[in-house]
Amino acid sequence: MQERLVAAAREAATRAYAPYSHFSVGAALLGEDGQIYVGCNVENASYGLCLCAERNALFHAVACGCRTFRALAIVAPKPSTPCGACRQALAEFCGPTLDIFLAAQDPAVPVTRTFLADLFPNPFTC
Ligand code: THU
Per the domain annotation, does 106 fall within a domain? Predict the structure, then answer.
């Protein structure tokens, strides 16, 4: 499962639109429905409009009708944790035990495993 998810995120990263940062990110969410939902970062000349790969994958999944998830893989030039905004967005739909795999585009770099609760222990709720 981990390998399949990381491979999907790695492929998504190759489709990133990142002409400003040159930092291509891919994300892959495994839904409770068994489907994999991918996203990549999409940048804009108006920098504030840039969308992270993680939120792109999450919103893609929600638009496809999936709202519960088992795991997330993120691939970037170096293993990178999701930004704060993406952590809060993930917390809206994912429980604290969500498995998160952090990988580099280079498959020789070891994959790190963490959990949403480790990265974001106290999400905002209302
Ligand atoms: N980026 C992501 O895709 N995910 C994150 O969690 C942090 C940053 C993207 C946004 C931007 O396109 C590029 O990486 C550099 O910040």
Answer: yes
Q: How many domains does the chain have?
A: 1
Q: Does the annotation count 3 as an active-site position?
A: no
Identify the pLDDT of residue 25: 98
| pLDDT tens per residue, range 31-58 | 999 999 999 999 999 999 999 999 999 9
Residue type, 73: A
Instruction: Give the active site residue among 3, 11, 32, 54.
Output: 54
Whole-angstrom Cα distance, residue 126 to residue 124?
7
pTM of the model: 0.97
Q: Measured from the CB, is residue 53 less than 6 Å from ligand 1?
A: yes
